[in-house]
Design goal:
By secondary structure, this protein is α+β, with helices and mostly antiparallel strands. The strands form 4 sheets. It has a 5-stranded antiparallel sheet with strand order 3-4-5-7-6. The radius of gyration is 20 Å and the shape is globular. The chain starts with 41 loop residues before the first strand and ends with a helix.
């Protein structure tokens, strides 16, 4: 099944010649590695280069596959692979929009060549699945590191524990650090929200779910405008106004979504009330944003600094929003004063 997204938009040039991206990767293709999750180095123009992920899954080495969740994207399983616990994500085919489903699967691989403590690592991916694991509605499978501590959506709305300053600051700094890394590699996530931020058992936040992501061209500045995307992708409550208008993409769209997510961490409330169409129109035409008035968290001096930071994050003009690096500096200022 060919990718509807050009392969050069999925992988950097130095990796593209060394990665098998044929129409259907073999589920039994041999890989010359031992019982670890380290993928062997590949040769590029006679030189050894790093290949941090594989385009094949060794299905005979997969054990104890147990379902852990499902949603509009498909299903997620916990499994043992080469002696380690992993997450297996099966992307399902949408009956209404098969092209969007395929784009979502291939967009997941935008982060396949990246490794960072605040980004969920892709281990392997394939469009070929053995018969005993096949699902006629499945497009492909992505094997990822298993984070295992739930997500920020659960922490914010389902946990009885208070979200004191040390926790929300650490979580928000982790997200900002992950965004700084992604943006430095020309990758825009486009669906930053609490449900897409996983929490490890050690309390480290990791950005997950790259099904809406876009890889900007290499000659683009981090703050410059990139390609257009459909307004359908992403979550409307966290989507930047320029994207709701169908305008061009830049990393600043993630900064807007970060601002909504930080507001949720601080208030533990849903950002908007009302139906989808009303919220989308109001965000674009009336500059609707989550309330910064009358909420107790914003009445203190630190709360007012947080409110000022949030106002910058969700500015109507993308160019007026801080970069991810600026976010880290501003968060430090909010906490230190």
């Amino acid at each position: 099944m060919p990718s509807p997204i050009p392969v050069t938009r999925l992988l950097p040039n130095e990796l593209y010649p060394s990665v098998d991206l044929t129409t259907c990767s073999s589920p039994l293709a041999p890989l010359a590695h031992g019982p670890t999750l380290q993928v062997p180095p590949a040769r590029l123009h006679g030189k050894i280069c790093s290949r941090p992920w594989s385009s094949a899954i060794l299905w005979d080495r997969l054990r104890s596959v147990e379902p852990v969740g499902s949603g509009g994207f498909g299903s997620v399983y916990r499994a043992e692979y080469l002696g380690q616990t992993v997450a297996l994500k099966r992307v399902k085919k949408s009956a209404k929009n098969q092209l969007a489903s395929r784009q979502s699967f291939w967009a997941e691989l935008n982060a396949a060549h990246l490794q960072h403590r605040n980004v969920v690592r892709v281990i392997a991916a394939t469009t070929c699945v053995p018969a005993d694991f096949e699902d006629e509605g499945s497009i492909g499978v992505v094997l990822m590191e298993f984070v295992g501590g739930g997500n920020l959506q659960q922490v914010i709305y389902d946990s009885p524990e208070p979200l004191e300053e040390s926790r929300w600051f650490r979580y928000s700094a982790d997200i900002a650090a992950g965004l700084r890394f992604l943006h430095s590699h020309g990758l825009v996530h486009l669906d930053i929200k609490p449900a897409n931020v996983l929490l490890s058992s050690a309390g480290v936040c990791k950005i997950a779910d790259f099904g809406c992501s876009i890889k900007l061209d290499r000659d683009c500045e981090v703050s410059s405008m990139g390609p257009h995307v459909s307004h359908v992708c992403g979550t409307y409550t966290h989507r930047a106004p320029e994207l709701l208008r169908g305008q061009q993409v830049s990393p600043k769209a993630d900064i807007f979504s970060f601002g909504i997510t930080l507001w949720q961490l601080l208030t533990r409330e849903p950002p908007y009330a009302g139906d989808r169409q009303h919220v989308q129109y109001a965000v674009v035409a009336q500059h609707l944003r989550p309330s910064l008035r009358d909420h107790p968290v914003f009445l203190s001096e630190q709360g007012r600094r947080c409110a000022a930071l949030l106002g910058r994050c969700w500015s109507a003009e993308a160019r007026c929003r801080p970069s991810a690096q600026d976010l880290l500096n501003l968060l430090d200022q909010v906490r230190s004063h």
